Amino acid sequence: MQVVEHELTVPWEAVLVEPARRSGAGVVLLTGSSGRVDRRRARVLAEQGLLVLAVRYFGGPGQPAGICEVPLEGFVAAVDLLRERGARRIGLVGNSKGAEAALLTAVHEPRVDAVVAISPSALAWANLGPGLDGQDRPYRSGWTWQGKPLPFVPIDDSWFAEEREPGPVAVRGGYELSERTFADRLAAAAIPAERAAADLLLIAGGDDEMWPSLRYAEQLAARRREAGRPVRLVTRADAGHQLVLPGEEPRPASPVFRYGGSDRADALLGEAAWEPLLALLGAG
């Protein structure tokens, strides 16, 4: 299907990808800690009839340079824009830190109809990078709502200070250590996915080397089920952090991070999640 890209600069840098034939559903697309506007995935989803808004939520004009006290209201504004453009069903699709943002937004904004959380966290974490003040320490929440920082788990920097062999690093151990160090912060920082009115699809690989996204996804799913809320979990033991959806090419290996999985395993997980994802979002 043909799609048209519209560049946006206000209130954030974004691209709105409009399909020739719209299903009536819209998607806010949020990437992880790379900060990029994910044009490739936006086009792949728009080709399925979805109106897709891919947003830069940090690192742009007027935004913090890092994921530091980012207002969730910015994602609500993206929902408003899609509604104004005629979308009747709104989904949030996020991977990694973007999944964290999508889940937290759905908890606070009942007009979100669906969330697809790829390689998610079950916790709200401390900032990654500096805030508007240019400072990244002491640690602060990554997110705010109505001007108030959300409870968060700090990072135990001792893991990252250890000497290691040169080359890409698997940082999962740093998150796991931080959970143990700040165990008293976990309950308050847990993302209450059971409170979200949205339908929820969780996608996670068991070989994720960035953080334990499968364990997190299982925790989120358990809370949803206990509350009688709809949830579906799609997983694959050998897949990593970087999901590959049908129509996408695997991303080049990072010189900085080890993501786990393999091109084949990540693509097979994407294939398994594809139909549930499209059905949840309302593609057509």
Question: Based on DSSP secondary structure assignment, what is the total number of beta strands?
Answer: 11
Mean pLDDT: 97
Beta content comes to: 15-25%
Q: What kind of sheet is the major sheet?
A: 8 strands, mixed
CATH topology: Rossmann fold
Category by helix and strand content: alpha/beta
Q: Which CATH top level class fits?
A: Alpha Beta
Low-confidence stretches: none
- For the termini, the CA-CA separation is 11 Å
Overall spatial form? globular
Q: Find the CATH superfamily.
A: Alpha/Beta hydrolase fold, catalytic domain
Number of helices: 8
Protein name: BAAT/Acyl-CoA thioester hydrolase C-terminal domain-containing protein
Pfam family, one: BAAT_C
Domain BAAT/Acyl-CoA thioester hydrolase C-terminal: 71-279
Organism: Kitasatospora viridis
Q: How would you describe what is shown here?
A:
It holds the Pfam family BAAT_C. Residues 71-279 form the BAAT/Acyl-CoA thioester hydrolase C-terminal domain. By secondary structure, this protein is an alpha/beta fold. The chain has one domain (3-281): Alpha/Beta hydrolase fold, catalytic domain (Rossmann fold, 3-Layer(aba) Sandwich). It is 30% helix and 19% strand. It contains 8 helices and 11 strands. The strands form 2 sheets. An 8-stranded mixed beta sheet has the order 1-2-4-3-6-7-10-11, with helices on both faces. Strands 5-8-9 form a 3-stranded mixed beta sheet. A hairpin with a 5-residue loop joins strand 1 (3-8) and strand 2 (14-19). The radius of gyration is 18 Å and the shape is globular. The N and C termini lie close together (11 Å). The mean pLDDT is 97.
